[in-house]
Amino acid sequence: MDLTHFDETGRARMVDVSAKEETDREAVARGKIIMKQETLERIRMGQIAKGDVLAVAQVAGIMGAKQTSQLIPMCHPLAITGAKLSFDFEEPDGISIEARVKVSGKTGVEMEALTAVSIAALTIYDMCKAIDKTMTIQEIYLAEKRGGKSGHFIRG
């Protein structure tokens, strides 16, 4: 498979998607943030001074998905039709993050889902860094995508 973001001279380019069919597309990305047990418990109990950490991270993740083309140079601006983030506490010391992003368009939303997870994790870090500078953001990956020319992908 050729890399599509380079032209015949090896220079970077934005892929021309004008000839592609519009299809319904969806991408799911996942990641996690590891922290001290005490930090996790304070998030769970709503005892972080800056507010409801997961509510803010959820909004930030959605905003991140919507801003992806402004952050990643070769991404097309997309009219996202849906974005949803969910969080699960993983004992003893982590929070898993999942983003599900949808669009009806000519290109996929993998980067938008990955950006949503990344921004949500960074927001958790920002809101809790005063009490835990050891937090680690880990394992951000594309879990699934559907729609478009390449079809349905599920990470094995």
UniProtKB/TrEMBL annotation:
Substrate binds at M74, C75, H76, M111, E112. Keywords: Lyase, Molybdenum cofactor biosynthesis. Signal peptide: none annotated. Catalyzes the conversion of (8S)-3',8-cyclo-7,8-dihydroguanosine 5'-triphosphate to cyclic pyranopterin monophosphate (cPMP). Belongs to the MoaC family. PANTHER family: CYCLIC PYRANOPTERIN MONOPHOSPHATE SYNTHASE (PTHR22960:SF29), MOLYBDOPTERIN COFACTOR SYNTHESIS PROTEIN A (PTHR22960). This is Cyclic pyranopterin monophosphate synthase. It comes from Desulfosporosinus orientis (strain ATCC 19365 / DSM 765 / NCIMB 8382 / VKM B-1628 / Singapore I). The lineage of its organism: Bacteria, Bacillati, Bacillota, Clostridia, Eubacteriales.
